[in-house]
Amino acid sequence: MASGNSDVVSEPPADPASSPEPAPRYVLRREVGRGGMGRVLLVHDARLDREVALKELVTASGKTPGSTLVERFLREARLSSRLGHPSIIPVHDMGESADGSPYYTMRFIEGQGFDAALGACTTLQQRLHFLPNFRDVCNALAFAHSRSIIHRDLKPGNIIIGAFGETVVVDWGLAKILGEGSLGGDDPKAPERLESDPEPRKSAPAMQTRVGSILGTPAYMSPEQTLGKHDIIDGRSDQYSLGAILYEILTGRPPHQADSIQSMLLKVASEPIKPVSELVPQAPRELCVIAQKALSKDPQDRYPSTEELAAELSAYLSGEKVASYNYTPRELLLRFLRKYRVAVGAGILVVLSLVATLAFMSWSYRRESVARRAATFAQRKEAQEREKAQAAQQLAVTQKQRAEAALEQNRVEQRQSHYNLAQATLERARIMLGMRRYHEALLLGAASRLHNPAHPKSPWHVAGYGDANPRSHHLLASADAVVLMAHSSTAVSLQNVYRPKSPMAFHGMMSPRHHWMELSPDRSWLVFADGTSTVTLHDLNGGRPTVLAGGHASPVDLAAFAAQGDTLLSVDREGRAVLWRPGSGTKLRSLEMPARVEGFSLLALPGTADFLWTTLQGAIWRIDAINGRFTEVKPAGPGEFDSVCLHPSGRQVLSTYRDGIVRITRLPDGTTRQVLQLKSGDSYHCAFLDAGARVHFIEYLGTASSEWAFDPLAGTLTPVYRSTLPWLPLAFSRSHLTQLGWIAFAPTDLGLWDPAAGSIREMVTGQDRQLEGIRQADPENLLAVDAQGRVMHWKTHPPLRQEYTPHRGRVQIVQQSPDMKWLVSASWDRTVILHERAGGPGSVLGTDFNHTVWSVDWSPDGRFVAAIDSHGALRAYDPSSRRLLFSHDCAGSLFPTVVFSPDSSHLHVLSGAFAYRFAMPSGELVHKVKGGLSNTNGGPTAPDRRRAIFREGIMIVELDYQTGRRRTLPVTGLAPAELLNCAALEGEVFACQDHRFAIHLYRTQTLEKLSVLVGNTQAISSIRLHPNGRWILTSCDDNSSRLWDLATGRPIYSFISSTEARSSLDSQFFQVSRDGERIFLSEGRRVFSIPLDRTLQAMAPQALIDLSQNMSGLRLDGIYLKSMSVK
Questions:
Q1: What's the pLDDT score for residue 1013?
Q2: Is residue 27 part of a domain?
Q3: For residue 730, what pLDDT band results from cuts at 50, 70 and 90?
Q4: Cβ-based neighbours of 883, under 8 Å, separated by 6 or more
């Protein structure tokens, strides 16, 4: 229920405290409305926990209601409960309050009255919006009539429009069941005929419900109700009320209006209703007719039933034909056209085509054809545009896919390009490594790591690349091996590059004069005599340079520190000398040289503060610079100097002349005599070695070097050796404390020369720096000057690479003693050499074998070494004395293996034909049995010397040396036909190689496969387990060696030779020291070891490149190397 109900009289609400309390089941919320016969409350049903409306009987005067009103109230409740319709409020409960007043509860609906809704409308269209709600009212009344119940007080105020659009008919207090007896209100003779308000509201008198002989609201009641003809009141009376409501919907007001109830009743009973069309011409004609029929004065003229009225209204709302309306032909035609637009249009065209002229038909046809063509064209154009849009969209998708594919392809090609670049730089690095250009190899190896997409820190790395391209891991391992080899082999690194203020003046490319640059004795200062009138001191500890100015007026050509380093003497071209204090730059004194001639060299005299000054014409002067005294030691002549060197004792001066004569001048008396005649016409450089015990000469034009023993007392030279230089030398420098010397080769290379071996240990390139001179003051400092006057300071150091006495042929075996103090190596030259691991000259054990030495072994206690050649010639040695213990010819044993027993008491010789056992150290033959061990590459005997594993036909056999028991090892994942060879390893592990050269690792006891190593290209010649148990070392017949990671199956280092290198790795063995810290390899006939240090491998590629560039003074430009900018 809602407060908009017309049954609620607008009076002040009664005090709730004075009202009868509802049953305890209901809790009062508020009063919703009040009328003359009762009031409606909103209560809470505590039993069902819901909000309901409660209507109770209360008279307006406050008097006790009569029995007729009570009966009417109860009848309303009973009738409402019998009408189960969506538009009729259902009754939930009925009872009596504490004072005996009846009440009933019903569903509470929150909404507004239909009268309020219509009152809020200002236009016809707004009111027509409520036609569906009005139809619901008609359907509700039709339902009630079908149950023989009539409402008798239907009006907008008794219709509720819910909050969700539902329509509800309320207030059935005057309802009547047709055929039942009348109540007091229906009978004119009843005691309560009429109880109208003494002063009805003037605002809407026609809208009040009357209770008495006239039942209903005058403005909406039928004429028979106004006349009190209760016997003919039936459902058609409610039709009249519905018609009055429809009339108000169409016109905005009731059918009749009056100032009093009496006049209203009179108008309803006798006065005709003003037609709707006169009040609202635009009102729908069908609705006007429906309203007019329902409002007929005579009930016989109305609809036979309310159901037909509802059907008429539904027909209108659904666009159907209204039966009560008499359509004109025009209206029928328009309605037909509206309903059947297409069919009627086509029919009209047919009719018109039949009655019109042929011309009109033709015109119509042409117009239709044009329209059809236009429509077809428009449709076709629309389809074309749609196809174009779809094509454009598809093209955009395709282009995007192509762009993404092109981008991905570009990335793939870019990665492939960098992979190819990694291959190219690695190959160049191998070539540089073979040429002993270690700095270049290091930088190119680092570049290969950078360009390899498999490296995790490469800019072109992508996850999964290495797994998809397994060769990239091998390429990376090869680059890491080159980096390790190069870094371990280099003996020099660039410290700084200094630029003089002006280019130096040189005296010809072939001149050995290099004394214009000197290091102080404490190696803290570098002095330039750069052809200007000033002398520059550079602080090698990083301080600011000191310029010695104000002492010379002409260019300075020579400068030298005194032997103690506390003074510095500089000499200019005009014969002026200046003595300086190096630390402070203080000028001590100036001296005028005794002869104004061109100086050749300036040397510090050991053990004194004096200097030796030589002239180009061959004179030697002693200068006491502190006291300003000059002493001529040797006069000029008989020729010009070619080179001058001072004996470390300071008592002899060795000089060469351009006619090839070598002279010795004694100090201090200046006695000079010829000691040697070299080839005339060549240019020479000389240097004392071994604290003055030897003299080394470089023949520039002859590209040779020679060494001579020097007797200081007799002053004689005895030849030691002569070797040929590989390239044209420019300058030579060699400290008398070193065995090796540095040679500047034309035009840009520095070479560390080993005169005894006649070979280059290392080459350092200046690339675009053309060298002019070098100076090696001591074993740790090297100076080189280029054509632009830039001086490069190199720091020399012993390389991490340890080299041993070379063989005459290629090395194929290296074994380390158990105590790691000795090495024994064997070569194709049929010799066995014993080396100290710390270095030094090695010793050849015995005489040469008749054939290639095939196997070597140390006894476990380190007291014996045994070697055997490929045809069975056996020798056993005592390494401490180098003495031969015994020899034996194991005839018929081709390619045998020697193995000491675990206790060193016996020596076994194993071959395919026989097995020998010798007692140690006597060499007594204990036994010889036929049928031995099938030899294979890789070494069949386990390091524990108790067993061997080898291939016998297509089987893998394990032989126990102690028991002689043989056991076949069935392995998985390797077919017998695929087996190539086998080898036993440490830790109960053995290896098998298949015909694709992959290595399969198994546990001996369980035959569990541990790993598969893929990437070898030839049969293995040696295989070892690293002491840490996690790495495997292999070497192959193609002279490649690899260190493998068992966990990943990938190579850590791959040592592979370059086919273009002059000298390169040439090894069929790969050994590791017993402590696992160094690895042993060979390079041709040389045996060497390098530390197994993975520090550089852990560095990011770019960081390694930066380190390499700083060490070498080179920078990487693609795959080419150039000089870095001067610091």
A1: 92
A2: no
A3: low
A4: 877
The per-residue pLDDT of the chain, averaged, comes to: 83
DSSP 862-916: SS-EEEEETT-EEEEEETTTTEEEEEEE-TT--S-EEEE-TTSSEEEEE-SSEEE
We report the CATH number of the domain holding residue 255 as 1.10.510.10
* Eight-class DSSP state of 941: B
Q: 910 in a domain, yes or no? A: no
Q: Which residue has the higher pLDDT, 732 or 763?
A: 763
Q: Is the pLDDT of residue 519 over 80?
A: yes
Quick one: pLDDT at residue 123? 94
Share of the chain above pLDDT 70, in %: 87
pLDDT class for 207, splitting at 50, 70, 90?
very low
The pLDDT tens digits of the residues spanning 1068-1113 come to 567 888 888 999 888 778 888 999 999 999 999 999 999 999 998 8
Backbone angles phi, psi at 782, to 5 degrees: -135, 130
Among residues 272, 307, 339, the one where a domain terminates is 339
Asked if 803 and 833 touch (Cβ cutoff 8 Å), the reply is no
List b or e across 15-37, with b for residues whose CB sees 16 or more CB atoms inside 10 angstroms.
eeeebeebbeebeeeebbbbbbb
The whole model's pTM is what?
Answer: 0.63
Who's near 1090: CB < 8 A, 6+ residues apart?
A: 484, 485, 488, 489, 800, 801, 802, 1078, 1079, 1081
Structural domains of the chain, count: 3
86 domain residue, yes or no = no
Residue 975 lies in a domain: yes
The separation between the first and the last C-alpha atoms of the chain, rounded to the nearest angstrom, is: 101
- Between the alpha carbon of residue 370 and those of residues 341, 358, 364, 1048, the distances in Å are 21, 18, 10, 81
Confidence of residue 896 (pLDDT cuts 50, 70, 90): confident
Domain that holds residue 618: 496-801
Beta strand segments in 920-965, E: 925-930, 947-952, 955-960
CB 598 within 8 A of CB 615: yes
Phi, psi (rounded to 5 degrees) for 645:
-140, 145
Q: DSSP assignment, residue 67?
A: H
Report yes or no: 436 and 726 within 8 Å, Cβ to Cβ: no
SS3 state at 429: helix
CA 672 to chain centre: 77
CATH code, domain with 1046: 2.130.10.10
By the 10 Å C-beta count (0-12 exposed, 13-18 middle, 19+ buried), 468 is classed as exposed
Residue range 413-441: average pLDDT? 91
Residue where one domain finishes, among candidates 1012, 1036, 1051: 1051
Could you report the per-residue pLDDT of 453-478, keeping only the tens digit for each?
999 999 999 888 988 999 999 999 99
